[in-house]
Amino acid sequence: MAISPKLRRTAAPRGFRRVAAGIAATTAIALLATACGGGGDEPAASGAPSGGGESQDLTITFIPKQLNNPYTDVVLAGGKKGAEAAGFVKSNIVGPLEASASSQVSFINAETQAATSVIVIAANDPDAVGPALQEARDGGAKIVAFDSDTAEQYRDVFISQVVSKDVALIQTKQISDQIGGKGEIAILSATANATNQNEWIKFMKEDLETNPAYKDIKLVTTVYGDDDDTKSFQEAQGLLQAYPDLKGIISPTTVGIAATARYLSTSKYKGKVALTGLGLPNEMRAYVKDGTVKEFALWDPAQLGQVAAYAGKALADGTITGKPGDKFMAGDLGEKVVGEKNIVIVGPPTSFNAENIDKYDF
Amino acid sequence: MSEVLTEERRGLTGVARLLLNRGAIMIYVVVAVLLYCIVAVPRFASVRTTGFLLLDVIPILMIAIPMTLVIISGEIDLSVASTAGLASAVMGVLWAGGAGMGTVIVVCLLVGLVAGAVNGILVAVVGLPSLAVTIGTLALYRGLALVVIGDDAVANFPRGLTQFATSKIGTTGIPVVMLLVLALAVIFGVILHFTPFGRALFALGFSTEAAQFVGIKVNRAKFLLYVATGLISAMTGVFWTLRYSSARSDNASGLELAVIAGVLLGGVSIFGGKGSIPGVVAGVLLIGIVNYALRLQRISDVVLIIVTGSLLIVSVVGPSLFDWLRRAQHDRRVHRSLVTATGISPTGNTSTTS
Question: Is B289 exposed, middle or buried (0-12, 13-18, 19+ CB in 10 A)?
């Protein structure tokens, strides 16, 4: 019985221990927040009344559709470079891990609170980000949409990669150059109802019919590889069996052109049947080097980020307001003009061939 | 000796119990973290934070409340986010089709009721394991949402309504919808903690058989819980649609995991039988605050999910580890006192001074 007082004594410490555990957890979280927050102190310091410098400390933040996407990474790398060259004191990249409609909103909110001067966004949903962007604008931020547009009323400008028609025309020109302006050609597309591809194909057909330089070129068929590697490979094979006189193939999709190139490079048609279209330099490099493909097209995603950064700078400086007809300099890319619906076109698509392909890494 | 053991095992009582249970501890942690963020995180201390943070947290909080009851009763519902998505899709299609907003909302809530009832029937009546059933309906309801609205998005909801969804109470920064969430928390809190039905859920979570023996209508209870979860998920879907003014099939995807993380962090045992509504509210708020503070510092979401994951592991493993340590300590003490009592102690004074 001499034991019981001792036990009663332990009842209280048990409660304390729980509290202690709570305190321990709190401290851990606090430490974590501080550790992570190390980098966050700088902008806070510079965001406070800045030491009397004439030019404001402009900041820019890129919000892509999602992080860790190879294509997006190239765009963002261009954006960061552009932001530095344009003269932003700080550029940040934040974004969700999944490209769902509403996932970008809390990032926009955080930027609003950070009083970021320019927000560059590729919208996952044109409307879901709207109210949040409006709130950011009310706080004084300039909004640049790029890659994927928001509803028009929520942004100052939209930076678009290319004009659809230009994408079509460069491909017809390339195929014509490669087959000597004469002979049968075919198109190997993505899915039958792919919006982008169908628009390009429409322009290609128009161009082939109306342009006198192409009067000897005959488009025999359009097949669909469904952006599936195996299916595209088989369709390419089928095309050459069905049309023995085929001189060239246009594949306006990165999956299709890579699969077709792979088939051609291992067949007797290598170097004899021309192939062009839209491809990724990294995927096409081997086929350009081994002579299967002479030239293909795409845009340079890095330029998109660069122009977006310069547009943001011009807006923040007040040089432009984003209305049609406004002009601004985009560094080494030259002067850009704001067009209808406040859209800025980055430029014509880029052609890739044996000479320049090693300069690109995407 | 048996007397000693019961005394040692006795839980906390009275005021101590109220102030030192898991839920209360969570509240202290939330308050402490909140104070810390206000002091240490730049820009955190502002009315804007209140608004943005709570708007982010509301969907999770809404579903977490009925989910608490489901998990306490020893079951789980993974289909909640898909139900919200389905409600959102239905809302979009009906509104685009020209139905009145009143009708639209009522139909959406009915969709939620039916979705919950299907879960309820499969779990409570057919007797299938809830994990399997709701993984199935998670895919099924999301699939139905896709069938209903496809790849489209409907965005032209009346401006008054979408503004109401994000409107704040005066200058406090607290969203008006928070009042609804508060009401839900109170209603479900009272049901869980102060009614025979609620207390029965704890019994159910400990042992379904035992609960049946003491006369609890197990099936009816489970069925009702799933219907409630479905209904509130649909409500969340409606709120989500208006808050982001966009009805899409992928709305609220992945939300179920955030909900369950919050519930578990709030001290609800995943095995059932333990937990409280105040604890869960604190758990959800804790995740919300930590996420918000990190995001404000532009910490990558990669770090964010690691932090959330770690918090969850700590909250689940922590108590078990604690229990284990306490038991080990207790065993040692009993052993030692036995030794002292019988007087054959070789190590003299340790038991009295420690």
Answer: buried
Of B16, B37, B56, nearest to A106 by CB-CB distance is: B56
Let me know: does A269 contact A288? Beta carbons within 8 Å. Answer: no
* Complex ipTM more than 0.90, yes or no: no
In 3D space, the residue among A35, A44, A139, A107 whose CA is nearest the CA of residue B298 turns out to be A107
b/e sequence A228-263, b meaning 16+ C-beta within 10 Å: beebbbebbbebbeebeebbbbbbbbbbbbbbbbbb
List all residues 6 or more positions away from B195 whose beta carbon is below 8 Å from its beta carbon. Answer: none
In chain A, what residues touch B243 (CB-CB under 8 Å)?
102
pLDDT at position B109 over 90: yes
pLDDT > 70: what percent of chain A? Answer: 85
pLDDT value of residue B313: 86
Selected residue of A63, A67, A106 to mutate for chain B interface (largest B Cβ count, 10 A): A106
Contact A26 B36 (CB under 8 A): yes
Q: Do residue A95 and residue B301 have CB atoms under 8 angstroms apart?
A: yes
pLDDT of residue B349 exceeding 60, the answer is no
B32: Cα within 13 Å, side-chain hemisphere: 19
How close is the nearest chain A Cα to the Cα of B184, in Å?
Answer: 24
How far is Cα B143 from Cα B146, in angstroms, rounded to an integer?
Answer: 5
Query: Residues for chain B: how many in total?
Result: 354
Task: Read off the tokens for B8.
Answer: 């040692």
Q: Would you call B343 an interface residue with chain A, using a CB distance cutoff of 8 Å?
A: no
* Positions in chain A whose pLDDT score sits under 50: 1-13, 35-54
Q: Is B179 on the interface with A (CB under 8 A)?
A: no
Inter-chain touch A15–B16, beta carbons under 8 Å? yes
Residue B260 pLDDT? 93
- Between positions 195 and 234 of B, the ones with CB within 8 A of A are none
Distance between B72 CA and the closest CA of chain A, angstroms = 22
A128-180 pLDDT, tens digit each? 899 899 999 999 999 999 988 898 999 999 999 888 889 999 999 999 999 99
Tell me, yes or no, if B339 comes closer than 8 A to chain A by beta carbon: no
* CA proximity to B81, closest of A98, A249, A149: A98
Neighbours of A11 (CB within 10 A): 15
- Amino acid identity of A137? R
Cβ <8 Å between B162 and A131: yes
Q: pTM, whole model, 2 decimals?
A: 0.76
Residues paired with residue A217 on neighbouring β-strands, in sequence order: A183
Q: What is the pLDDT of residues B156-177, one digit of tens each?
A: 899 899 889 989 998 888 999 9
Asked if the Cβ–Cβ distance from A110 to B322 is below 8 Å, we say no
Distance CA B245, CA A132 (A): 11
B314 at interface of A, judged by CB pairs closer than 8 A? yes
CA distances from A26 to A177, A234, B30, B44 (A): 69, 60, 8, 17
Q: Are strands A118-121 and A59-63 parallel, antiparallel or unpaired?
A: parallel
Most A-contacting residue of B256, B298, B330, B340 (CB-CB within 10 A), to test interface: B298
